[in-house]
Specification:
By secondary structure, this protein is an alpha+beta fold. It is built from 10 helices and 4 strands. The chain has a 4-stranded antiparallel beta sheet with strand order 1-2-3-4, with helices on one face. β1 and β2 form a beta hairpin. α2 packs across α8, α2 packs across α10 and α3 crosses α7.
């Protein structure tokens, strides 16, 4: 037989070991299964007092892992489909989402998120502007200032996007990212005027990535404002509009000299933070 795991029991000197072994039950053919052995005294090496067949337990764990992987893949496919729909309607907004998502994932990793958690931030950021599907393209791409009524329509996009994804079951806070990425730490954001910890951390990460990318990139209605303007906005708003810890992580990436990929091939060569690949 082969040891697969080993741990200390809660009962003092008792020791629990899980092994893979061939087991025969009566006249039934031997089969491979996992058994759990508890040794009550480490001095009695090899003496087994309790044998617990955990074959079914192992099979259930494997089935759960397969199901979870399938759910994650389905979520990824859903996000890709939504992103593609946004790209067909407004290529600039979709491209902005892609670049901001890469930056948000990089910031998340800098903050200590594991790969799966950072992946969730990435997919939420990828469709953070999904609600702009409800805004006429003529408004989204019009040069110059918008009327108050048009601006109010644009500002509805977080809620509209959250409504689109509300019945989708993501293993990450995607809906919170979509709904809250324009909220600000001091309560001056929209749509709900949330403050501080009322805003999910994932949404706070995407807020920083969103500002950094959108200010430094070309838009149909204005030229790029440049990386210095984007950095200045985030530094000026650090601890006020934007989460200080997240801005610091972003600035650390800036100091490392990592760069965003070019936005649509017509933006300047900006040195904000990296494409995480």
């Amino acid at each position: 037989c082969r040891d697969t795991t080993e741990r200390r029991s809660v009962r003092g000197s008792e020791r629990c070991r899980q092994i893979s072994a061939s087991v025969r039950r009566g006249q039934q053919p031997a089969k491979r299964c996992f058994v759990r052995l508890i040794l009550r005294d480490p001095l009695l090496a090899g003496r087994v007092y309790i044998i617990d067949d955990v074959t079914a337990e192992q099979a259930l764990a494997q089935a759960d892992a397969i199901y979870e992987a399938g759910q994650i893949n389905a979520c990824i496919d859903t996000v890709a489909t939504l992103s593609r729909a946004l790209e067909l309607v407004d290529p600039y907004t979709a491209k902005h989402g892609e670049v901001a998502a890469r930056l948000a994932r990089k910031i998340a990793r800098e903050l200590g998120y594991d790969e799966l958690e950072a992946q969730g931030v990435y997919y939420g950021a990828l469709i953070h502007d999904l609600g702009k599907l409800s805004v006429p393209v003529s408004i989204l791409t019009r040069p110059g200032r918008l009327s108050p009524a048009e601006m109010n329509l644009v500002r509805m996009h977080p809620e509209m996007g959250a409504n689109i994804v509300q019945h989708l079951h993501f293993p990450w806070p995607v809906r919170e990212i979509v709904l809250q990425h324009h909220e600000r730490m001091d309560g001056t954001g929209y749509p709900a005027g949330l403050k501080g910890e009322e805003i999910s951390e994932a949404a706070r990460i995407v807020a920083v990535a969103d500002v950094a990318e959108s200010m430094s990139a070309h838009r149909p209605y204005r030229p790029a404002l440049g990386t210095e303007a984007a950095i200045r906005e985030l530094v000026d708003g650090r601890g006020c509009r934007y989460d200080a810890r997240i801005v610091d992580a972003f600035l650390k990436l800036v100091a490392a000299g990592q760069t965003l990929p070019e936005f649509g091939g017509d933006s300047d060569n900006r040195t904000i933070a990296g494409d995480v690949g």
